[in-house]
Amino acid sequence: METRHPPTPEAIVDRFGRRLVYLRLSVTDRCNLQCAYCRPAEGVAHVDREEILRFEEIDRLARLFAGMGVTKVRLTGGEPLLRRRLPELVRRLTAIPGIRSLPMTTNGILLEESARPLREAGLERLNVSLDTLREDRFEAITRSSGPGRVLRGIEEAQRAGFQQIKVNVVLIRGFNDDEVFDFLAYADARDVNVRFIEFMPFEGNGWSREQFLPYREALERITARFAVEPLPREHSSDPALEFRVPKQRGRFGFIASLSESFCAACTRLRLSADGRLRPCLHQETSVDLKGPLRSGATDADLARLIRGAAHLKQEAHPDYLADLAGPQVSGITMTTIGG
Ligand code: SAM
C-alpha cells in the first residue's frame, strides 16, 4: 500500500530511505497476563496514570502522523483491552483521513465482552496472541488461567463480524513446539490464520538459543506431513511468510524476526503509552513527544521531533543469533514498549 504513492515532502523517511508508514500505538502499559517471555520475572514498574497519553493527545498525534504519510495504526499495549473507553478511541482514529488500516493486537482475555462494541466502533482487524491450547501450559507461561476464555473471545469476535483473525503463537522449543499441528487443526476448524513468531530476546525474559526454534525447522516439520502452498505477500513490508495447507481453511505463516530479519523492509515506528516514540523495537533510544505536546509544542515542532526519531532508526537490529556472548538487550522490554 505504501509503495503506491511517491513520498511527499511531509513523509517520514529514515536515513536508509525507508518510508515509515506504520505506527504501533500502545494505549496502556498494563497487562492482565504476565507472560514469561514478554517481561522480566521481577515484573515492571508501571507508568503513573497521568503520564499516559489521553485520547485528545493520541488523536492529535495520530492526525499529525497521518498527515506525514502514516496509513496504518495498530492498537497494542500492554493489553489494549484494559484501556477504558477503547471503542471511543477507535471511533476517533477511524475518522482520521489517511488512516486506512486500524488493527489491534490483544491477548483476547477480555475479547468476549469487548469484541462487539469495538467492531461497532469501526475496528476491522484483530490479532489474538495465544501460545498454547493447553490449560496447564497457559498457566505456566502467563501465570493466569484460561485458553478457554481466549478461544471464546475469538468465537465472539467472529460472530461480531471480525474476519481473517490472526492468532499469534510465539514458538518456544520444549514448551509449545509440539502444538504446531494442533494450531493448524484449530485454524482449519475456526477459519483463522495462525502466525508462528520466532522467540525474541528482551531484558530478563529467559531467552536462550536452546529454546529458540528457527522458522525453517518448524516449516520443515509441517512440510514433512503436508504439501503446503506458499502464498504471495500481501504487501512488500508484511513480515509474515505465509502458506496454506490445500483443502484446509485458514493460512499459516511465520514471523522470522531473528532468522530472516525483515529490517530492510521495515516501515514501523512505535509510540509508547506515555508518549515516547521509538524508532525500533530493538533499540533503547526513544524521543519524548508527550512533554512537548503538553507544554504547547506546535504541529511543526512535533513533526520535527518525529522526523528526529525516524532519523535515529538503526539499519537493522543486532544479529542475536550470531552473538555468541549472548544478546545484549538491557532496557528493552516488550510489554512496556508496546508490542
Ligand atoms: N497484550 C497484547 C497481546 O498479548 O497480544 C499486545 C502486546 S504483546 C507485547 C504483542 C505481541 O508481542 C504478542 O503477540 C506477544 O506474543 C509478542 N511477544 C512478546 N514477547 C515476545 C518475544 N519475546 N518474542 C516474540 N514475540 C513476543
Tell me the structural class. alpha/beta
Ligands bound, unique: S-adenosylmethionine
Separation, N- and C-terminal Cα atoms = 22 Å
Mean pLDDT across every amino acid position? 93
- Please give the largest β-sheet: 7 strands, mixed
At the fourth level of CATH, the homologous superfamily is Aldolase class I
Percent helix: 25-40%
Strand content: 15-25%
How does this model look, in words?
This protein is an alpha/beta fold. It has a single domain, classed as TIM Barrel, CATH 3.20.20. Helices cover 28% and strands 16% of the residues. The strands form 2 sheets. A 7-stranded mixed beta sheet has the order 3-4-5-6-9-8-7, covered by helices on one side. Strands 2-1-10-11-12 form a 5-stranded mixed beta sheet. The mean pLDDT is 93. The site of S-adenosylmethionine has 20 residues, from strand 3, strand 5 and helix 10.
SSE topology sketch:
Blueprint: E1 22-26, H1 55-67, E2 72-76, H2 86-94, E3 103-106, H3 111-121, E4 125-129, H4 135-142, H5 147-159, E5 166-171, H6 180-190, E6 193-198, H7 215-223, E7 229-231, E8 240-244, E9 251-255, E10 268-271, E11 276-278, E12 287-288, H8 290-294, H9 299-311, H10 334-337
Parallel strand pairs: 1-2, 1-10, 3-4, 4-5, 5-6, 6-9
Antiparallel strand pairs: 7-8, 8-9, 10-11, 11-12
Helix pairs in contact: 2-3, 3-5
Concise structural overview:
With 339 residues, the protein is α/β, with parallel strands linked by helices.
Key attributes of the depicted protein:
single chain; 339 residues; alpha/beta; TIM Barrel; seven-stranded mixed β-sheet; five-stranded mixed β-sheet; 12 strands; 28% helix; binds S-adenosylmethionine
